[in-house]
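Please go through this protein, sequence plus structure tokens, and consider how the sequence yields the tokens. Keep your notes short.
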Amino acid sequence: MIKNRKIATKLLTLNIISVFIIILFTFIGIDTSLKDRDNTENLILCADRIYVELSEHFNIENTNNKNYIESLKKEYNNLEIIIYDKNENIRLKTDGVDEAKIDLNQMQYIMRNKNGDFNPFMKEYKLIDNGQTFELVIFKYRSSNSTVESYIMRILFPIIIVLIIEYLIIRRKVKQLIYITDGIITMSNENLEYRLELNSNDEFGILSHEINKMSSNLKIKIDNERNMYKLKNELIANISHDLRTPLTSLIGYMEIAKNLDLKLEEKNDYIKKSLEKAERIKILICELFEYSKLESGEVTINKIPINIIEMLEQTIGEYSNLAYNNYLDIVKLYKEFEIITNIDGNIMIRVFENLLDNAIKYSKKNSKIYIDVINDENYSIITLENTMEESIECDSNMLFERFYRGDKSRNQKISGSGLGLFISKSIVDLHGGEIHIETEGHRFKVYIKLPKG
């Protein structure tokens, strides 16, 4: 299970930042709108103050009126000021007004229909000076950036920016997902050598790595299955040959033995040869039966304390004649007479028989087979060393594979199913032990390590 969900963390962080930015800019927009000197509320307030100022200090005859209203304009947000009489003659105005006579209706019409980048403001008042009534018009052409639309844009801008950033991030992740999907499709088309190259520390990176690992493991399994299928075919061919040859000889010898004209000595010789062929067939069938049981997991072991030296002596005694006939000497290097080990003797004896049989089959003529036992505190270690006719040119671990028989050209004349070492390793594994092979040139040495307990 992935503990650090980096994509989820990134998206959560991005959403938190997005909400923060939106809230921040919203407050900024509201604050800006409140502080905007050209907002309507502020302009009304300024216009009212100008009116109050003029109501208190205005005198149409005062020669300083021009400077006075200009100072009011500067003080109150650059509002334009017009004072006109009942005949619509402008009596006083700020510099921003060009007209000498005012048409209020036309001015209101213009204000209402002003186009472009302006949002006009206008307010009217009445002034009384020395019994005369004057009209006061205060107005301003405001820039449209002070309108409600500008405030909305100030809020929408950060939202748009956040959406763009989220889109770019999600787009990148979608691209990675599409890349992974295409890679899986490529692998599913039996291209298991294809590898995803995604340098990312998030879940997509982990997913790519795991898919690559899965593809690699699957390729190894498929290759192993293909090799196994090939080896099985070879086994069938080998077993067929190894069964057919002695079976043909057996039938031939029995046919000859039926001949009534043969002497008793000759008949006994043919019967002996027939028994040898029958024994060879029996060994092959037994190996196949043992392999089948080990593969199905039906084999159970019953460990009891057994003197492993005695078991070795028994095996050596059974194979000494075969070794002698092949011009081989079996040399016992161990000195102990008793090493007690908890094993199932009924199946462990098969291991010793397989190893010694292989050593006799493949050893160089007129050489020696060395057998030794090391009495370790917790383990019994058995070694068997011989000199091969030819050097081993493969990984020694391959020798433990089922149906493997090494170089075919060298082993065509040597009977066997290729199951002996596989069976031996399976039995040793069932005992919780270890078995491995060391080769150096023509030297071949097998190590078996069995726990005593």
About this structure: The chain has four domains: 6-35+150-183, 40-146, 192-298, 301-451.
